Amino acid sequence: MDASEEILNLLRDNARLSIEDISAMTKKTPTEVNAIIKQLENDGIIMKYAAIINPEKDIAHKDGIRAEIEVQVQPERELGYDGIADRIYRFPQVKSLYLLSGSYDLKVVIEGDTMQDVAMFVARKLSTIEGVRSIKTNFFLKTYKENDIIYVEKRTDSREGVIA
């Protein structure tokens, strides 16, 4: 494993590691680590550092709605799926967009304040895009695990055991 890959793996697990901590863990100098990270950022490999927030505990967004929208589209001449994808991912409601194989072409993950917001986005924005053939909306009800993080707290049985 080269130094870049080693540093990436450390940052994937904990993006808050300091240059000094990474230096100690990789046996590279802080100057070398800093240069590698800067190069990874410049190359677009590291695109953003972000906190992963438990949506059920985030008071500011606790009542927000997330939905997964399955979209079948007609690919465009010369652009294929990319032209339609470009129009879709520009909407601020769109948090993720994937091209997939299978029964639908695109998976769109959006967020809104209410179910009405999501419905209006689908009806007025997404369904009106030329080339969109069908849409199926699924609402997220509860997050159990996402990005390798388990969101549900383990329940412990607080009852005392009985010995016979």
Describe the structure.
It is a single chain. The longest helix is centred in the first third of the chain and has 13 residues, at 30-42. 32% of the residues lie in helices and 21% in strands. Helix 1 (3-13) crosses helix 3 (30-42) and helix 2 packs across helix 3. The chain has five helices and six strands. By secondary structure, it is α+β, with helices and mostly antiparallel strands. The protein has helices at 3-13, 19-26, 30-42, 82-89, 115-126, and strands spanning 65-73, 94-99, 106-112, 132-139, 145-146, 149-150. The protein has a four-stranded antiparallel beta sheet.
Layout of helices and strands, plus pairs?
Blueprint: H1 3-13, H2 19-26, H3 30-42, E1 65-73, H4 82-89, E2 94-99, E3 106-112, H5 115-126, E4 132-139, E5 145-146, E6 149-150
Antiparallel strand pairs: 1-3, 1-4, 2-3, 5-6
Keyword list:
164 residues; alpha+beta; four-stranded antiparallel sheet; two-stranded antiparallel ribbon; 6 strands; 32% helix
- Cα end-to-end separation: 56 Å
- Proportion of strand residues: 15-25%
Output the strand order for the largest sheet: 2-3-1-4
Radius of gyration: 22 Å
Structural class: alpha+beta
Shape: flat
**Overall mean confidence score, pLDDT:** 91
- β-strand number: 6
The main sheet comes to: 4 strands, antiparallel
What is the string of SSEs from the N terminus onward?
Answer: HHHEHEEHEEE
